[in-house]
Amino acid sequence: MERQSKETQSTPLFTTGALFALIWPMLMEQFLSITMGMADTFMVSGVGEAAVSSVSLVDSINVLVTQLFAALTGGGAIITSQYLGRRDRESAVRSAAQLYTVSMTATLTLMVVVLVLHRPILRLVFGAIDADVMRMCETYFIITAVSYPFIGLYNAGTALFRVQGNSRISMFASLVMNAINIAGNAVLIYGLKIGVLGAATATLTGRVFAAVWVYTRQQHSDNPLRITEFALLRPQKNLICRILGLGVPSGLENSMFQIGKLCVSSLVSTLGTAAIAANAVANTVSSISTLPGTTISIAMTPVVGRCLGAGDKKQAHRYARLLMLVACGGLAVFNLVLYAVIPEITQLFSLSAAATESCIQVVRVFNIVSVFFWGTSFTLPNALRSGGDARFTMAVSILSMWLFRVVCSYVLVLGFHAGLLGVWIGMFIDWTCRSICFVVRFKSGRWTEHKVI
């Protein structure tokens, strides 16, 4: 038994080719996902700054919701990946089925809540904003809420493909979803002249297609994680508790993080429509420069999870360090390029002169800081979560978000009149705190000591 253990540890679980085959479709998928958001912002910008502001404000809520969905999906993916690492296919299939059950229950519930309470939610979060902006917010919010169950279905399916090392399915789905969204925007915004309504409808249509296509592929006869019986979808307390044990802390972390961002967005809304529009474009554009870090964050779950499921902590550490090196190198390259071209990019969004200047300023500061702190703030903790260390990452993220980002933003804006840049400086202070905590935790090795399965 001891000899077999040593042989297992000496055999790499992932070749360089396997890692590349997993990562590059993820990178393309993340790029397509961002361009989908940019397409809405860019194509809606032709309708006016009120339309840009409404899409941005509602998307800040939608990000909160989708991050919650992603966290629940991530909990199930970690469990399934560890079962695959242990070569326990029967348990992997059961956990995959329960992942669908949890995901669809959560998304349907939240859809109903938004459809019933959309107006009170918007007024609670954003307070008094221009009447035109509020009207467009309500339209965009209602239609995008209908897409929540399809997001849940899509997230569950793509997560299960990734834990098998297949990220091409979700890449293709994102490609077609992106094409549907852009074509729909062109027809509905420019052709039928229905503005924000058109942008929301195109987004919904793309998400419906992606969800249905991914699910049908997941149910293909040659898929080892195919749900073969309806009975597998019936709630199983043991597996649901394990999924929620990982998903709920991550969900709370993401939710509290996004609620903090909403508080900051509410602060930005007091700075005027130009600041809201500048912040919206800056958030959308800057997300391009974090693509490598976001991609590697997703890759951490199947890679590190499989290693720990196989009982090989040494390889879990080694692959996590390797993936972090790739993420940091990619972040440096992407941020350097965006720093150089951001003036030209902002010209595409029909912003006022004041909004353009503010957007360029915050994005360039973002480019500098993210090279050093984004990866350790957001990519590294996914390695910890893959080992079951979700409660630690939750505690650090929530405390750092509220103690540093939210408080510092309000102090800088209201106390020192730092404007939009003050909001972003508060975010950078938050990153620094997170990075210190996560690096120390990773080096300690305590994140590999949890029992997930």
In short:
With 453 residues, the protein is an all-alpha fold. The protein is built from 15 helices and no strands.
Q: What is the end-to-end distance?
A: 21 Å
Major sheet attributes: none
The tally of domains stands at: 1
Number of strands: 0
Class by alpha and beta content: mainly alpha
Helix content: over 70%
Q: What would you call the shape?
A: globular
Order of helices and strands: HHHHHHHHHHHHHHH
Strand content: under 5%
> What is the tally of helical segments?
15
Q: Give me the Rg, rounded.
A: 21 Å
Overall pLDDT: 87
Poorly predicted ranges: 1-9
Can you walk through the features of this model?
The protein has 453 residues and is mainly α. It has one domain (13-448). The chain is built from 15 helices and no strands. It has helices at residues 2-10, 16-45, 49-86, 89-126, 131-146, 148-163, 168-191, 195-218, 237-269, 273-289, 291-309, 313-346, 353-386, 390-415, 419-444. The chain starts with a helix and ends in a 9-residue tail after the last helix. The model is unreliable at 1-9 (pLDDT under 50).
